[in-house]
Amino acid sequence: MFPAEIMPSYDADQFNAALALIWGCVGMCILFLVWPGGQGRRLARQIFALGVLGFREGIRQNVLWMMFSLSAIAGGLAYFSDADGTHSGRARLIIETSLSIGEVLGASLIVLLSAFSVSREIESRIMYTLGTKPVPRVGILAGKALGFWCVQLVYAVVLILFTAALVRAVPLRPETRQTDKFSGNTGDASVSSWEKLHRSTLFTRRYRLPEHGEGATPSLAIIKAGEQRTFEFEIERSALNREALEIQFHLASSMAFNPLIPDMLVRMGYAGSPPILEKTISVAQDRPFSIYLEDTDVAESGRLQVTLGASKEDKYKTSILVSAQHGVRAGLPADGLVGNLSKSFVLLALQGWILALITTAWSGVLSFPVTVALGLLMVLGGEMSRQALLLLDSNSETLKNMGPAAMDATNAASEGVKAMTAYIVLLLKILPDFRTAGGPAAFIDGNFISGWAIAYAAFWMGVVRAFGWAIPGALSFQGREVGK
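^ that's the sequence the OP posted. Answer follows.
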């Protein structure tokens, strides 16, 4: 039935990464405890002491308060804007603006702090004093990275709390656009505005793809002008648990220059029963658009039919393209605002840890401008590598969908290209992707981020790739003549 089918399948790689992360942390703790002569515990105390000093140093820097101010300005502008005129639109704008701006400012904060500290201490000869102490060079870098990371964590905590407060205050401002019960602010008039906003906007959903009565679901359905197409979902009313059922559309059309798909028919109802909803609407092209059905509207279990129809009028004449992967989907609530913001905090913290470790390790070898450039390279390079990998993967899918004869001809002619592509993919995966697991603002469009996905990101980005980039810098600093 619907609840079982809608549950996401756990990727074995994600599960294994989570186990490796947990046991790796346990093993590290045991190693520190049983190190001969108490060297592990002493190194841990030294790293902690240097981390406290680095934290105090970062807190005193004006750049931290500048980042706080810029984040507050961005969130305030989003709150006092009209967005689309609804509480739902304003809440989405606040979250997306605050977390997106916070992601950039948090990365800038950690890069500036870590790049400025070690290079300045080497120039002012403070590092010569530290170099004479019985503290390993690696301990100095690890302590400073820990301290600066804690500064970024303070920034992330304040950002998340500020965002939550702004979202909670959204119903205090009136809506400037009248909405109907199917546009996103749903529910009975007796229900408070906050409850309606929370139910229709601040939940992520677990989605499932539509079913077709005959044959397999096509990868791409085309609804030509004047035609209709029906998608079916098996619904169990008891699974709604008094929450809204979300039908999400993510469509494109042949009228690509128009940001909207105008005059589109939407009909919803159970087979053999009168429609729950039948209306003509305009939806955003190539952007998620949702219609919410309250549990009072979903009066029974059964096969829910969603019919889409392209306009017949000449001025709106267009074909609608529906992709099976993200076209028309039905979803049940998965995570609320608190859970989503907590996961956003974890992803912001993961980004800060990666940058703190890499830039601090290399700041003992490189100058301040070069270290800042390295931090920017990590952030921008990770973003570009993610986009490039998506393009390469889409080309692979296109090749799979070709006919057997075409594939044979293509494979015979492109073995070298395929080998080169494999090497390119390997090189791109070396860069850390800071939008892994969807990024802090991924749930704005209703995406569900599982804990396994976050564990996978923490293992491969926060452990493997962060240390992979930091260790060469730490080894180079180890051999540098500082304080000897």
